[in-house]
Amino acid sequence: MKDYEDNGPWMWVAFAPGCRLILDFVIGPRKQYVADKLVESVKKHLSDKIPLFVTDGLNFYREALLKHFGVLIEYPRTGKRGRPKKPEIFPRDDLKYAQVVKIRINGLLKKVKKKIIFGNNIEQSEISTTLLERQNLTFRQDNNRVSRKTIGFSKVKEWLEHQMRLYCTHFNFCRGHGGLKYKDERGVECKNTPAREAGIVDSIWTLKELLTFRCFKTSIK
Q1: For residue 49, what are the contacts with CB-CB under 8 A and spacing of at least 6?
Q2: Which superkingdom (predicted)?
Q3: Mean pLDDT calculated for residue range 153-159
């Protein structure tokens, strides 16, 4: 990885390809603590069953997954001289993780490798980041704040986070997705939203419903 790719903020996105749902995002540099923060957030959204994780070749994801889905093994003291063996973190038996590593030479893509990092019984066809890469393109097409080579980029991280939070929530709950089709009660084919496809809601929300939804309870004294 070249140095210039590590400088400046990046948008780290967690994405469920089956229902096209944007689970969460974090804006920050390419550092270990940002990867930890993203995986920690993803863990809060998951049920007891751990899905297959697929990322690019950035090794920060491996360490973050071990931290949040690993098992700490402590070795007993042997009574012999010398320092005791340090505890180690091992992946859980149900943790599955693979990487899509793209090899470029002089800026041109030459080869794509699929690597299984943790887990067994992972089909090569399951190891793909295509849908997420297409989602990243959608981000740039819809949102001038994250477009490349533009004068409309965000100058303040806080406001970029607010704007992207609104965008992602609208994308999940209000915007019909071309890859998610269903037939209504009249038999007409319609575009479904990621949130409805995932079973989070039972209807497609309007923007008014989104903006007026109470996301927390208040007590009246």
Answers
A1: 94
A2: Archaea
A3: 84
